[in-house]
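Researcher: Quick test of sequence recovery. Tokens follow.
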């Protein structure tokens, strides 16, 4: 797991525009690895996995309840889910095996968070 953990820390948190990151194994619906201090509860794992299992339009209409906050979905399709709450947000990229989750906070550029997460996603299918 240290390889995956280092990949999350170096590639995502290293941008300085990702506050926290996690990797969720889709099939097992379990947290594989997370950045220090980022706790993703089982109900949050279910929320994210279900966000892709349901019709993306439904996720977009209903929004997302993640880590005790309501987020407005700004993108929801078969590959990606972007949601925001005021000046914070969550970016989720689906691979064949994992959901890659990244968050940003006020003062960070959401576009950098999105770009880094989208670029990193496919490398987890090679791990």
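Model:
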């Amino acid at each position: 797991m240290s390889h995956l953990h280092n990949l999350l820390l170096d590639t995502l948190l290293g941008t300085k525009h990702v506050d926290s990151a996690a990797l969720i194994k889709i099939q097992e619906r379990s947290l594989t690895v997370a950045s220090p201090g980022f706790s993703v509860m089982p109900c949050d794992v279910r929320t994210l996995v279900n966000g892709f299992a349901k019709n993306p339009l439904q996720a977009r209409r209903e929004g997302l309840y993640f880590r005790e906050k309501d987020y407005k979905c700004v993108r929801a399709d078969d590959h990606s889910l972007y949601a925001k709450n005021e000046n914070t947000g969550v970016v989720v990229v689906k691979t064949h095996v994992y959901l890659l989750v990244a968050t940003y906070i006020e003062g960070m550029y959401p576009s950098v968070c999105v770009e880094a997460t989208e670029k990193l996603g496919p490398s987890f299918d090679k791990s």
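The chain has a mean pLDDT of 91.
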